[in-house]
Design goal:
Layout: E1 3-8, H1 12-20, H2 38-51, E2 55-59, H3 70-90, E3 95-97, H4 106-119, E4 124-128, E5 130-131, E6 134-135, H5 142-151, E7 154-158, H6 167-170, H7 175-193, H8 196-199, E8 204-207, H9 214-228, H10 236-240, E9 244-246, H11 253-263, E10 268-269, H12 280-292, H13 295-303, H14 305-310
Parallel strand pairs: 1-2, 2-3, 4-7, 7-8, 8-9, 9-10
Antiparallel strand pairs: 5-6
Protein name: Amidohydrolase
GO molecular function, one term: hydrolase activity
Keywords: Lyase
């Protein structure tokens, strides 16, 4: 079964809850066709069928329940996960899900991780590229990484949409065009330079959008890390190949080829970024892989890699 690891679903009730907690950026997720109404689901499934996609792994990113207030974070995380559990139970052939965690409250996040994976049956967790300014390599988050590593589970990383923390992006209408892939790049490099994949070898990390600019930067990083990050224990390119990358590239064949040549086709998993690639753009997210890679590589990316990383059989 062809599995799309980068797909979203939000209910108005969840987005309204985030708004009530002070979130001011939920408009981007509203009215996109990624809701939970019967009509939206029917349209989604018909589109997926037209693209040959049988199964999607849902994540609420970038609207993760990351709040400074503990009660807000917990309440939003439980709502998100309960909605996803309902969606998966109603459509088990169509959906699986990554859990949302009430970060940066690590004790609460560990409790919700246990509930989501053991009771609700989720495949792993989804986080944004930073958690209220904390990098994913911050020691604060180490207990969460350690628990996912113990379980051999998945950490799916998605941009936060905060312009990589720079007003040069945020104030100049580039939050998603430029900011999102920059956030992917920065988060991946944080984890690489901190040896996160080596320190947690059973943790399966999936980065969004081909890792941003990472395919173009790894040789530079290999050449320069010894004087800029001398405590890093291995070549950044070697650490990068310990992670996985979804194929969201907006159908850009040179980018897909660069990622496959840099990481190996075995490290790429199909992603569409539904609903932001919709209609012909979503279908192109699938067909571009065949245009970019040789038949063996394309077959692995489209039909095998995600199932292996996620532990899903072909009859997911």
């Amino acid at each position: 079964m062809r599995i799309d690891v980068h797909a979203h679903l939000w209910t108005d009730a969840y987005l309204d809850l985030l708004d009530s907690y002070g979130r001011a950026d939920t408009a981007t997720q509203r009215g996109t066709g990624a809701g939970y109404t019967e009509a939206e689901l029917e349209a989604r499934f018909a589109l997926n069928d037209s693209a040959g996609i049988g199964h999607q792994v849902l994540s609420v990113s970038p609207q993760n329940p990351h709040f400074a207030r503990r009660d807000h974070a917990i309440g939003a995380a439980r709502m998100a996960n309960d909605v996803y559990a309902e969606a998966v139970a109603a459509h088990p052939g169509r959906f699986s899900a990554f859990a949302a965690l009430p970060l940066p409250h690590v004790d609460a996040a560990l409790a919700e991780l246990e509930r989501a994976l053991d009771t609700l049956g989720m495949l792993g967790v989804a986080v944004t590229t930073d958690v209220l300014g904390h990098t994913l390599a911050d020691p604060l988050l180490a207990p969460v990484l350690a628990e996912l590593n113990r379980r051999g589970s998945v950490l799916y990383v998605h941009p936060s949409g905060h312009g990589a923390g720079t007003p040069l992006i945020e104030r100049h209408r580039m939050r998603w065009m430029v900011g999102a892939p920059m956030e992917d790049t920065i988060a991946a490099m944080h984890m690489i330079l901190a040896d996160i994949p080596s320190r947690y070898p059973r943790l399966k990390i999936i980065n969004s959008h081909l890792g941003g600019a990472l395919p173009m930067l790894l040789q530079r990083a290999d050449n320069q890390y010894r004087w800029e990050s001398p405590e890093t224990r291995e070549l950044p390119s070697e650490t990068a190949r310990r992670m996985w990358y979804d194929t969201v590239s907006h159908g850009h064949v040179p980018a897909l080829r660069a990622a496959a040549e840099t990481f190996g086709a075995d490290r790429l998993v199909l992603g569409t970024d539904f609903p932001y690639q919709n209609g012909d753009l979503l279908r192109r997210a699938v067909t571009s892989i065949g245009d970019a890679l040789d038949p063996a590589g394309a077959s692995a990316v489209l039909d095998a890699n995600a199932a292996a990383v996620l532990g899903l059989g072909r009859a997911a």
